[in-house]
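Progress report, Aim 2. The chain analyzed during this reporting quarter is listed below.
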Amino acid sequence: MVTKIKQTLGPNHLVVFDYVHNLATTYLALGDFNEAVKLLQPLIEVSKSYLGGSHVDVLRQTKTLASTYFSQGKLNEALSLQVTLLKDFQKTLGHEHPDTLKSNYSLAETYQNLANYSEALKIQEPLLQLQKQVLGVYHPDTLLTMNNLSRTYQRMGKYNEALDLQKPLLNASEHILGQEHPYTLDWTRNLALIYNSQGLYIQALELLEPLLKTLERVLGETHPTTLECINDLGLTYRNLGKYHEALKLQKPLLETSKSIRGENHLETLICMNNLAITYSRMGTYLEALQIQAPLLEISKQVRGQKHPATLRYSGNMGLTYFKLGRYQEALSLQEPLVEISKNVQGEKHSETIIFTNNLALTYSKLGRYNKALELQEPLLEVSRLVLGKDHPSTLKSTTNLVLTYIDLGEYQKALELQQPLLDTSKSVLGEEHPDTLRNINSLSAIYRNLGYSTKALRLQETLPDVSKRVLGDQHPDTLQSIKNLAIIHQTLGSYSEACLLQE
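Predicted structure tokens for the chain:
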């Protein structure tokens, strides 16, 4: 079509520019980012020479190029375009024009994904007020900004602020747009994501299960939004430790995504990653590795080696090697990963914190305890400051530091962290969450090593039964809890009980 129009009207006719831009936009929607860039970069140069750099069409083409860079994970390239673009829109169209408002929205979203939340907030909070004045409180674009601002609060660990926006947003959407409007359905998912971030998995489940039924009826079983909800529900089951329920959703979801979207589509890669993590959580690490190795290679080819998703997949694969006891292979992934993440995402980005935590844990398992502590002690302070003391990543940072103290035999230091950690884990994640069970196991081990065997027994004696019910009787955590209980009985001289457990 574009070739025929070029032949008829000439390559530099305004209609040709429009058709090329539309084709690039279609490539962007299809996830074919390289083809979109191949069209947009020369198009913008030619458009600038014929129309001028401040022409609205040139600005809109540049906005599409910035969106393509954003989708590729080239966030700094997107940012450099968007900062200039916003000024140009303000100068050309004015501060209150819809294109200018949308340019604000996109710039804030890029800051958000760079984990530069303070800059995102500087744009989103005044933008929301301006949109309320110019467009109205209930205009869809105003509601979109409310949703995005809620996401920024969520990622900063400001869950109450996020809920204060998301709950009324959802109520407004239900009344104005209807309970089955796409925005309403999407924002229901977002509220469930906030609950998941808080560790309120039951509340998330109560939203997602009926939402999925609605989506299947309204949009169809293979609609992208329906597939995203299936993914969210699978993650929620996994967060609850209901791994078999998660697998029942995730395995067919992956096959559906491959057949509808293609094996290399970004959403298919997400499905692969989530399935691999579920296998890992179940303790079936080889099955996880069989998915993660090809996933990492595909992501490098499709998104590039420094894309946040590629970094995430590399981190997950390193963690699987770690759990298999293949520490050198874990290290070969984790050391360069931390450096790349620091350079690309920043030292205080939540994922850089996670990657550094995992690297420290590998150092600890290799007996390089001092090197582990050099990372873990300052990292815990950063995590508390950036993410908050109750954030799951902060809890994980605390857990890892405790494990290093245990390996060093510094049980008193471990105890000072572990008791409040367990209390927080119970309140934030729930008493039967897998991480809470691991924290009980660790506290029991600390008591045992400090000579408080009776205290250890009181914690440990019911743990194997709970772990069997939550994780299954063959899960590594269940086996470890049985082993630890047997050791406590040995310490107390209850050899017959120890023998029964060991057999």
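Residues 285 and 320 are 6 Å apart (CA to CA). The two ends are 74 Å apart (CA to CA). These observations will guide the mutagenesis work planned for the next reporting period.
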